[in-house]
Amino acid sequence: TNESVVVTSSGGGNNNKTNDTGYYDNDDKEDQERLWPSKSLSMKASGIAIFDLFAQSMVYTGNNLAGPTIFSIIYSSVTIWAALYSKLLLSRSLTKHQWFGVCLVVVGLSLTAVDSSTVGQSIFLGAILILVGSSFHGLTYVVSEQIMTPPSSPPPSTTTSASCIESDQVVVAVPAPQQHQQRRKRRQHISVRANCAVQGIVATLALLLWQVAYTLPRRSELVLAPMAEAGTTPLR
Question: What is the SS3 assignment for 232?
Fold first, then answer.
């Protein structure tokens, strides 16, 4: 026989879940108080953090090549990319007023750069890097929201269910396997705090590793020599 979970609700609005042994089922409370995500969700959040580091590297490399004017114009397309990826991955769309606001920002930044001087070594290559990096950076916003959004659970359909009304109480019997399946689906999203923590820790460790493995051995040519040419020191 399938183990079943009995859900009892009274007029006071308090829901208590018990199994066949009469003990309370605290799985939902444990899910809500779960501070650290599962391994699969942690890997997804870590992958997003690494991907965003790659996108930011492309963007700021392009900034050095194309100059700050081109950078400010193209980088403003992050909002547009986020809206497009949100439509493709999350089936969401912006209203006409929101699209007007996005276009207004892009046009405004373009107008401010009309009389600006272009400073950059390779404008074309830098613009390509900024464009692709901005697209990837906009994608990280959408996939982060995707793993933080809990899946919508359909109403339960049971083959064996019984309900009766006695005064103001309703008792519904739901098979335990279906309850566990619904809990597993609810666990396939990460909280905002956990997502920020995982991505922040991973990005910090990745940048620290880069500084130790690459920058520190080359500190003379990358840091000390440019400082000497500028006539400055680490203290001023």
Answer: coil
Taking the chain (236 residues) in runs of 10, the rounded mean pLDDT of each run is 46 47 42 66 93 95 88 86 89 83 77 60 86 94 90 50 44 52 62 91 95 92 88 78
- 88 contacts 33 by C-beta, under 8 angstroms: no
221 Cα distance to chain centroid:
37
How confident is the model at residue 197, as a pLDDT? 92
Return the pLDDT at 111. 72
Report the distance separating Cα 31 and Cα 37, nearest Å. Answer: 10
Distance CA 187, CA 27 (A): 11
What Cα–Cα distance (Å) separates residue 109 from each residue in 72, 103, 113, 231?
7, 10, 7, 35
- One DSSP character per residue, 3-21 reads -EEEEEE-TT--EEEE-TT
What pTM, to 2 d.p., does this model score? Answer: 0.66
Q: Which amino acid is at 151?
A: P
| Contact criterion met (CB below 8 Å) for 37 and 122 | no
Find, among 160, 150, 206, the residue nearest to 183 by Cα.
150
Please count the CA atoms within 13 angstroms of the CA of 77 that sit on its side-chain side: 19
Contacts of 173 by beta carbon, 8 Å cutoff, 6+ apart: 4, 5, 6, 158, 160, 161, 162, 163
Q: In whole angstroms, how far apart are CA 220 and each of 105, 210, 214, 227, 233?
A: 42, 16, 12, 10, 13
Cα-based angle 215, 216, 219 (whole degrees, multiple of 5): 80
Give yes or no for a contact between 7 and 15, defined as CB atoms under 8 angstroms apart.
yes
